[in-house]
Design brief:
With 151 residues, the chain is mainly alpha-helical. The chain has four helices and three strands, in the order αβββααα. Helix content is 55%, strand content 6%. Helix 1 packs across helix 3 and helix 2 runs antiparallel to helix 3. The two termini are 17 Å apart.
């Protein structure tokens, strides 16, 4: 007996939740009222801190919007949500590692991966890893309550 479909909804809702979070952060990065400008006047246009916390620029915001839309779209199917969670976990874990290294913490000048982005990316990557790799492995395993002994 396979695990019921209702037990797979956390996988789908994780994709939806991550999608909504990154869509909202990405959109907030384009609204000047939500972005505190950098104290460095020589920084690139669009660079600032969303809510004064997360470093961002226009490219970073666009990535957030795209990831957000993808997560929301992935919610529509279990397989789509699993794929989203897996790819998200891998990419954002890589972003954490790159953000910790001084020579790659701006992704070679494209987007900021440093500062508070590190812990946000680490937490969301860990959540996506669990619901992309660990939880799907439980689907299809016989549950102990419905397993019948062989005679």
């Amino acid at each position: 007996m396979q695990t019921s479909i209702s037990s797979t909804s956390p996988i789908r809702y994780t994709a939806l939740s991550l999608g909504l979070l990154f869509l909202l952060l990405g959109l907030a990065g384009f609204v000047r009222a939500f972005v505190v400008p950098s104290g460095n006047f020589t920084s690139e246009p669009g660079f600032g801190y969303i809510f004064g916390i997360f470093p961002t620029n226009y490219f970073h915001n666009a990535i957030g919007v795209l990831v957000g839309v993808w997560g929301i779209a992935a919610f529509t199917s279990l397989s789509g949500a699993i794929v989203f969670n897996r790819i998200f976990a891998i990419l954002y874990a890589a972003g954490v590692i790159l953000g910790l290294l001084p020579f790659t913490n701006t992704l070679f000048g494209l987007t900021p991966l440093f500062g508070n982005n590190i812990w946000l990316n680490a937490i969301t990557a860990a959540i996506a890893f669990y619901y992309g790799f660990i939880k799907p492995a439980e689907i299809g395993k016989p549950s102990s309550s419905s397993a019948q002994p062989s005679v």
